[in-house]
Amino acid sequence: MICIDYQEVAQGIVSITSSNYQGGRLATRELLAAGTKPVLILNSQNSPVDQERLRGYKAELAAANFDFTEIHIFQLNMRQDETIDTRRLTMRGVLRGLPQVVGEAPWGTFAVSAQLTADILFAAHSLYLSVFEDLKIIGFDDSPIARYSFP
Questions:
Q1: To 10 degrees, the CA torsion angle through 144, 92, 123, 4?
Q2: pLDDT (tens digit, 0 to 9) for every residue of the chain, 151 residues total?
Q3: End-to-end CA distance of the chain, in Å?
Q4: CA angle at residue 126 from 122 to 128, to 5 degrees?
Q5: Are 107 and 135 in contact (CB under 8 A)?
Q6: pTM of the prediction?
Q7: So where are the chain's domains?
Q8: Nearest alpha carbon to residue 93 among 80, 111, 74, 110
Q9: How far apart are CA 137 and CA 28, in angstroms?
Q10: Cβ atoms within 10 Å of 43's Cβ, excluding its own
Q11: In this structure, are residues 91 and 119 in contact, taking their beta carbons and an 8 Å threshold?
């Protein structure tokens, strides 16, 4: 048996991990290079994977001397079993709040999962935001929903 990003494995089980910390740094670096003030969108800080991505995000902002506050992190408390409409309504609220947090567009969002990225894309379209002009998005992971997402 092979596990991916699983922290505790039994003897004889192989665990493959990705560099979530480095991925967090790279995503944040790209958003900064695009001229945005990056915000991080998390669903749960309880996940070790998300914690590493958060750590990378903060480290890259510090390296860039970015004036970071916790307000740049949107912690969503959505459950996996919530409906798509509920998740996307929540994400529309996040996007509507970006001007108060980071100022004028373009906004940079780093979503720690492909599902959150898809929800951001859908919410952006429903608010008539232009991905590329108004909103820069970096997602993480390559779950099946990613192949159905488009800017």
A1: -20
A2: 565 655 565 676 766 667 889 999 999 999 999 999 888 888 765 788 888 999 999 999 999 998 887 778 888 876 666 777 888 888 898 898 888 777 787 889 998 888 888 888 989 999 999 888 888 998 877 666 656 566 6
A3: 36
A4: 115
A5: yes
A6: 0.81
A7: 19-148
A8: 74
A9: 10
A10: 21
A11: yes
Contacts 24+ apart (CB under 8 A), 76-85: 76/41, 76/42, 76/43, 76/116, 77/43, 77/44, 78/43, 84/119
- Which residue's entry shows tokens 């995503």? 27
Residues 6+ positions from 15 with CB-CB distance below 8 Å: 2, 3, 4, 5, 6, 7, 9
CB 76 within 8 A of CB 90: yes
Contact 73, 42 (CB under 8 A): yes
116-125: b (≥16 Cβ within 10 Å) or e: bbbbbbbbbe
**Kind and range of the H or E run holding 138:** strand 135-138
Burial grade of 71 (CB within 10 A; 0-12, 13-18, 19 or more)? exposed
Architecture of the domain delimited by 19-148: 3-Layer(aba) Sandwich (3.40)
